[in-house]
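Posting here for the record, re: thymidine-5'-phosphate.
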Amino acid sequence: MKKGVFLSFEGIEGTGKSTQARLLFELLREKGFDAVLTEEPGGTKIGRKIREILLSPDHQEMTPLTELLLYFASRTQHLAQVIIPAVNRGAVVITDRFTDSTIAYQCYGRGIALHLLHSLDNIATEGMQPDITLLLDLDVETGLSRNRGINKTDRLELEDIGFHKRVRNGFLELAAQQPERIKLIDASLEKEEVRKRVLDLVLDIVSS
Ligand code: TMP
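Prediction output follows.
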């Protein structure tokens, strides 16, 4: 059976990755691809409930380990219910965030040990990774102010600037370690230019 393509968008807050994910999804559909647009945390009914728990600013008492386990709980359900069936039928699956976010936010941001992350990842995803990851990179101040401009203030966004800088640094280190999979895109460019760069990187893969 022909397998599909699994693709993720990653980045800190305010990079425009959700907009770019949607633009790519719409373009692939126009071109006749069986494309699926989904997100983490979320993507399923259970995942959306977990998302509410994770992002509510009321849950300040949440421990880093609880947070980590909830992100993986959402991911396990997402894989079983949405991602794996779609990839197996040959679809192009676009997810707005996946495990790279957990490494950047929970390990680099919160300080969870990488070996713990890898153990859980082996259980929850069996090490499944996207075929290609588009990492939209932007400086932290610009990203946060873009999001505050649209009144987006969830529990993680309310973290201090140092946290967000560690997260960005985490993403950049991942990109440096895995340049074949993780493609860095300058998110300070015009939306149209970012869209073109995304498309250049993706069309080769989905058409092959
Ligand atoms: P979003 O705002 O891009 O939808 O993402 C929701 C928030 O969850 C965002 O602040 C990043 C955070 N997050 C993690 O901390 N770990 C994860 O594994 C994922 C998927 C998201």
